[in-house]
Amino acid sequence: MSTQPNARSGTPTTDLRAAPVTTHAAPTAAPKARPRDWAGLAVLALALLLIAVDATVLDLAVPSITADLAPTTPQLLWIIDVYSFVLAGLLVTMGTLGDRIGRRRLLLIGAAGFALASALAAWAISPEMLIAARVLQGVAGATLMPATLGLIRSMFADARQRTLAISVWGAMAASGAAFGPLLGGWMLEHFWWGAVFLVNLPVMALLLVLAPILVPESRDPNPGRFDLVSAGLSMLALIPVVYAVKEFAAHGPSLNLLISAGVGVTAGVWFVRRQRGLAAPLIDLDLFRLPAFRAAVFTNLLSVFALAGVLFFGSQYLQLVLGKSPLQAGLLLIPGTVGSMLGALAAAWLVRYWRPATVLAGSLVTVALGAGLYWLLPTDPSGSVTPFIVGFLLIGLGEGVALTVSADMIVSTAPEARAGNAAAISETAMEMGIALGVAVLGSAVMAAFRGGLDLTHVPSAQADAARESLGGAIETARALPEPAAGELVSSAHSAFVTGIHLAATSTAVLLLLTAFVAYRAATRKMSATV
């Protein structure tokens, strides 16, 4: 790593282009972590587990929420993914803010806010109130996520210990998204849907008590001025584009979506140009000059893209096509949950024997194979669940490895003082993957569902309700006489599974292409850095 004068400030600055992407060489003289640091890691991992759980915990609750609050299809999609949209939009801002005011302080503020938002979500009495509560959860979650990874970067100076610590972090992030439906299924078997949020309260209380004892404070000693304009532009660049993608996938092109996308792209260009002129930018754009860094960020996004999409349409498939109860559906997701944890924990071992680029590409191929198996999903309720279980297991394994290795590469590249900023980039990619997975794949499934649904024998007054969702079609069929009811259910099952086939094929092809591109990018000029 070399230093050079900063043209804007005249002070030395780190040349990130010469920085190693990740360290897997012989141990250096860096101090080893203490037992207190490992105990602090457990506290941080627990907080991250809950944040990841809340991204998917409502997937199995979709039928219950539909029956209780009667949301429209757009409202239902917003309930599921607005949390990830808001979280992703604020991660960069909150990561940089944590570098300035202290990452532990931001962690404690976020924990208190997350508990309050969870209580509001639990007792929501309308779709609008639940969406608002999920927005508040996203704001609070955005303070927690970069703080956890940024603190790990400062707590574990030894490269090998840091890789292991990030593997634990990755296991929580990977398994949390998959564990959400299992927790949701168990809660729905015993309580009302709002109870899935109440489990957050005691955990956040524990975090507020233990973090000041076990987790040391860390911050950037010379953070520079916090640029509010850049913070606003980062959100204005992200949210309109994601909204346009979501609505385009669901309803096709329109002038409003074109305007929304245009606003986002314009704000993004303005944001990038502004960062290049600031002495203390919100995002260090020099990081993106590293091919391996770019590959790691993109891999991070795509790996969770597939997982989130599967969890969204998979939970409905298990319950509404195969007729499983919420708890049974959650239990069928256990192999994928375990696979996510094992993949994340195995990542630290894999990069000792293979280059990170090879491990990243292999993990994406594994996820693609899992998605491809969904072509074998049956439409008959008596059909085998084996294709779903095996496919989800492969997706979990690949996603766990990809998430951990890419996060390690991203965080190890950045100087320690900018740990929160690098962590925010990593987690923005992850949350964007979750949000886009739900929006794009979920909307693609629903578009195919509506296009293939046979409403020949459904009265026109009930046709709109049947088109709204798979659950709406099943509910409409219950009010119809035979054989019209049976024909509608059969058509709904077939159309929904056809949508899954389309989404699975698209995902598999995209992941295979990404594996090739990411490998080529990550291996450029890496021979001297890995």
TrEMBL record:
PANTHER family assigned to the protein according to its UniProt record, in alphabetical order: MAJOR FACILITATOR SUPERFAMILY MULTIDRUG TRANSPORTER MFSC (PTHR42718), METHYL VIOLOGEN RESISTANCE PROTEIN SMVA (PTHR42718:SF47)
Originating species: Nocardia tengchongensis
Polar residues biased stretches: 1-14
Region (Disordered): 1-31
Superkingdom of origin organism: Bacteria
Main localization (coarse): membrane
Keywords: Cell membrane, Membrane, Transmembrane, Transmembrane helix, Transport
Pfam families: MFS_1
Protein name: MFS transporter
Membrane topology: Multi-pass membrane protein
Compositionally skewed regions (Low complexity) per UniProt: 17-31
